[in-house]
């Protein structure tokens, strides 16, 4: 048993499941006073945020790895479970008292629920004469820092990106190394909390370990492999779902077994340190990392998006259709539009979907079926192993034309044209929709009747026209009002 003297630092792990480039862990370990790590599973957050069973299992597997990796550095990992987020302040304070920790360190998370949770913990610690320190690891530039000439947040991505690059290139882009090994005598806890099995008891889990092995070694090797080759063709091939042309790092970034800074430094070193020239593949990929930061900033600058509301307030009056049967057909991948069905089945099978397809299916749901984007947003979170509030909300509000720098309401993707362009030989469709395996390449995007495969559930042209008219009415009435 460790003395109850306050001598150690408590590090609260959340979506930062890695040892390297983890500022909270690194800085706590540098103090050399001993570190205790803790993870808190919150049942209420799982329910409210519709966390996918595949993502929960991914978290579970990461925790197992973290327990081993941290133990090698004499850092014990305590596992706790709470029903409600409101219990967390008390649980963390009790733990810090019991295990002799004078301070709490954690890396920031930006959606409103998480910010409120962390504020409550910080206040509670402050009220009980304990310190806390918040670090930023989830983004390359922390929210609140990237501002236009008037000191306001950017709403247009290209302007944000220009300023972001100016600022980021001034930073020392050197990721933190491994946290220091702690004194062995300080590497014990009197109560390790729950076992990993009991932590997840009764929680619905989906094992996708064959597709998505856990851990930071896996994440770093995927990054190295991508930066070593495919990144160069990223610009020309990233929209082709049948190709393995994107990094597939999103699950690792979401759970935090990889940091965006590690991604950026790998990209820069593949491009001789150049940010916006050199390999077009690399600079295009860097842009995606900026999109990632952009949406994290949006959640802080415009917290209305965290309240199930559109960023463009007037679009809340849009007459979304409430049709459960249509929604279910979309969810199951039985719409009769091959590219949409292949994409939705990719999501069900793998917990992941290619970016071009996310845009196609989100537009189809919101613009052709006219079903509320919030239902699609929630369904994605309930299925995605890379579910991330900021990126998902940003993607849905972009597709529904309700968000910041969103797709204009009149620019509606035609899924058949998209399919012809981005899956020209139908390879992706055939992989996920076996009913269409024998249909010719010429017909695969819009097949003739095929036994066992449904006819298109909606007239693409007519529904597109109707949606545009409804948006025009909405904009007309909002500009009059
Ligand atoms: C409707 C919709 C929902 C989405 N939901 C999520 C989500 O829940 N989680 C998530 O991580 N991404 C989401 N995205 C963004 C994007 O589709 C995925 O990040 C990307 O497909 C992941 O594949 P990758 O790792 O191979 O990406 P790459 O193309 O290799 O890109 C590298 C990284 O950049 C980031 N990134 C890329 N594109 C975007 C983008 N448009 N917005 C924000 N970050 C981006 C991701 O972290 C990604 O891993 C969504 C997009 C849309 C249109």
From TrEMBL:
Its EC number is 4.1.99.3. Keywords: Chromophore, FAD, Flavoprotein, Lyase. Gene3D superfamilies: 1.25.40.80, DNA Cyclobutane Dipyrimidine Photolyase, subunit A, domain 3, HUPs. GO terms for molecular function: deoxyribodipyrimidine photo-lyase activity; DNA binding; FAD binding. It comes from the Bacteria. Binds 1 FAD per subunit. Residues 7-140 form the Photolyase/cryptochrome alpha/beta domain. Belongs to the DNA photolyase class-1 family. Belongs to the DNA photolyase family. The keyword Electron transport does not apply. It comes from Marinimicrobium koreense. This is Deoxyribodipyrimidine photo-lyase. It catalyses: cyclobutadipyrimidine (in DNA) = 2 pyrimidine residues (in DNA). It is an enzyme of class 4 (lyase).
């Amino acid at each position: 048993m460790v003395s109850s003297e306050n001598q150690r630092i408590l590090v609260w792990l959340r979506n930062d499941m890695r040892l390297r480039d983890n500022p909270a862990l690194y800085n706590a370990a540098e103090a050399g006073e001993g570190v205790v790590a803790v993870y808190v599973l919150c049942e209420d957050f799982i329910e409210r945020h519709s966390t996918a069973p595949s993502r929960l299992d991914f978290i579970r597997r990461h925790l197992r790895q973290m327990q081993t990796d941290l133990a090698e550095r004499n850092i014990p990992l305590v596992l706790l479970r709470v029903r409600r987020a409101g219990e967390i302040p008390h649980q963390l304070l009790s733990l810090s008292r019991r295990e002799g920790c004078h301070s709490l360190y954690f890396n920031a998370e930006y959606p409103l629920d998480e910010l409120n949770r962390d504020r409550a913990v910080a206040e509670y610690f402050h009220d009980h004469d304990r310190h806390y320190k918040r670090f930023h690891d989830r983004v390359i530039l922390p929210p609140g820092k990237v501002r236009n000439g008037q000191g306001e947040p950017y709403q247009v991505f290209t302007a944000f990106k220009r300023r972001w690059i100016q600022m980021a290139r001034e930073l020392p882009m050197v990721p933190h190394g491994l946290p220091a090994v702690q004194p062995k005598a300080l590497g014990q806890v009197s109560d390790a909390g729950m076992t990993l099995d009991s932590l997840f008891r009764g929680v619905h889990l989906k094992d996708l370990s064959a597709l998505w092995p856990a851990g930071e070694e896996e994440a770093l090797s995927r990054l190295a492999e991508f930066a070593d080759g495919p990144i160069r063709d990223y610009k020309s091939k990233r929209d082709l779902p049948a190709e393995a042309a994107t990094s597939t790092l999103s699950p690792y970034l979401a759970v935090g077994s990889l940091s965006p800074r590690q991604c950026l430094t790998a990209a820069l070193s593949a491009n001789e340190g150049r940010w916006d020239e050199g390999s077009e593949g690399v600079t295009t990929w860097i842009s995606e990392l900026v999109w990632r930061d952009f949406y994290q900033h949006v959640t802080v600058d415009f917290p209305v998006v965290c309240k199930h509301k559109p960023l463009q307030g007037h679009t809340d009056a849009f007459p979304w259709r409430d049709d459960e049967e249509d929604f279910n057909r979309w969810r199951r991948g039985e719409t009769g539009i091959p590219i949409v069905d292949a994409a939705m089945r990719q999501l069900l099978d793998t917990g992941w979907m290619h970016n071009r397809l996310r845009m196609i299916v989100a537009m189809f749901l919101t613009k052709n079926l006219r079903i509320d984007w919030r239902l699609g947003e929630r369904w994605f979170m309930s299925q995605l192993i890379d579910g991330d509030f900021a990126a998902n909300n940003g993607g849905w509000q972009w597709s529904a034309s309700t968000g910041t720098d969103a797709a204009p309401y009149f620019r509606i993707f035609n899924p058949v044209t998209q399919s012809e362009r981005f899956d020209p030989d139908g390879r992706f469709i055939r992989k996920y929709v076996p009913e269409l395996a024998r249909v010719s390449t010429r017909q695969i995007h819009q097949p003739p009747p095929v036994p066992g495969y449904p006819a298109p559930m909606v007239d693409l042209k007519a529904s597109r026209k109707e949606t545009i008219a409804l948006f025009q009415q909405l904009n007309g009435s909002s500009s009059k009002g």
